[in-house]
Structure of Ferredoxin:
Amino acid sequence: MTYVIAQPCVDVKDKACIEECPVDCIYEGQRSLYIHPDECVDCGACEPVCPVEAIFYEDDTPEEWKDYYKANVEFFDELGSPGGASKLGLIERDHPIIAALPPQA
């Protein structure tokens, strides 16, 4: 199991969760943040600091955002497991689910 970043993060990317993550597993895409499922240690430190309540434990993700688990996993298909987001900085792409969304207000 892992944590998932869902739609409320799209076009917001507050990054408080990045600062709170003890294992540096939250990566920044063009429009959203993503939690690496293999690097996350399920500590939950990110969830309470998210100002838009976009982070959910995988099993607790609201039904309307269940596809965001897939987006968080598949975002790393090309990257593999880099071993820390700070090494990469901004990744100039997003998962197709997120890229296809209209701009979020």
In short: The chain has three helices and four strands. The mean pLDDT is 96. Strands lie at 3-5, 26-28, 33-35, 55-57. The longest strand covers residues 3-5.
